[in-house]
Write a structure and sequence with these properties.
Layout: H1 11-14, E1 26-32, H2 35-41, E2 50-56, E3 74-81, H3 92-105, E4 110-112, E5 116-119, E6 122-132, E7 135-143, H4 160-164, H5 170-191, H6 194-203, E8 210-214, E9 219-227, E10 233-237, E11 240-244, E12 250-253
Parallel strand pairs: 1-2
Antiparallel strand pairs: 2-3, 3-7, 4-5, 5-6, 6-7, 8-9, 8-12, 9-10, 10-11
Helix pairs in contact: 3-5, 3-6
This protein binds biotin (BTN).
Length: 258
């Protein structure tokens, strides 16, 4: 028997938006390969356009991983952004999206550096920021109403519903995210990333933990001590501080996912 899914009502997002241009143009799809890929194919659309899909057939995560995208259960969305910044600044948008996602999710969550939103020891949201020509595409996946996960994910993934016992309207989460994102993003463009980093640090659960830093060809154990103004994780190894940038690295707690 086919399970009846709740279809999103875009008016529920639009009606209570407080933004100037983020999310003011919304493209909704029943199914897409990936909202990030759709944004890349449509970079002629206005700054702040939001692409949303009910499901993705090729949802993509960081480091070439897959992003499970069950129909109607999660939020799968990508923002097309056209800021006048250097390409190397693009990854900083991820930090801002992380803060906005924590606020939009609203359940007691934190950020596992660089951009996994976690509740307790499990991931509830992931962010994938990509460049396409001079555009930034910031993709956000949130596990909202999932009631279970495949065996390979169940020890490290959770959903808002599993954590709270409540069902959520995905439109509310999307609208809250957009409304939270825009002021932070404007602050970043006007005053630089340093002006929002204190908010990020407060939410970052990686700081203070013993971690394993995993590169494609090597790994080492360290203590995470800070995140600097460039969004790099500062780790201490044998009393020496090193900075780790998010491009190719994965960080695991010594005793589990966090
Ligand atoms: C990660 O944690 O690995 C990042 C996951 C990002 C998933 C989102 S879902 C919407 C957008 N479209 C994609 O294909 N990926 C991002």
């Amino acid at each position: 028997m086919k399970v009846q899914r709740v279809i999103m009502d875009i008016n529920n997002i639009v009606n209570n938006l407080t933004t100037e241009y983020i999310g003011r143009n919304i493209r909704w799809f029943k199914s897409l390969d990936s909202t990030n890929s759709e944004a890349k194919r449509n970079t002629d659309m206005p700054d702040g356009t939001l692409f949303i899909a009910d499901t993705q057939t090729n949802g993509r995560g960081r480091l070439g991983r897959e992003w499970a995208s069950q129909e109607g259960e999660g939020v799968f969305m990508s923002l097309l952004l056209k800021p006048d910044i250097k390409p190397e600044e693009a990854s900083k948008v991820t930090l801002i999206a992380g803060i906005a996602a924590v606020r939009a999710i609203g359940i007691d969550c934190g950020i596992k550096w660089p951009n996994d939103i976690v509740i307790g020891t499990k991931k509830v949201c992931g962010i994938l920021t990509e460049m396409s020509m001079r555009n930034i595409i910031c993709g956000i996946g949130i596990n909202v109403n999932n009631q279970s996960f495949d065996e390979d994910l169940s020890d490290k993934a959770t959903s808002m519903r599993l954590e709270s016992g409540k069902e959520f309207k995905r439109e509310d989460i999307i609208r809250n995210f957009i409304n939270e994102f825009e002021p932070l993003y404007k602050q970043f463009l006007e005053k630089g990333i340093a002006s929002v980093m204190d908010m990020y640090r407060v939410l970052c659960v990686t700081i203070g933990r013993d971690v394993t830093v995993i590169y494609p060809d090597r790994k080492f154990d360290a203590k995470a001590v800070d995140v600097n103004e460039n969004g790099e994780l500062i780790v201490e190894v044998n009393g020496e501080k090193k900075s780790v940038s998010s491009g190719e690295v994965s960080v695991r707690g010594l005793f589990g996912y966090i």
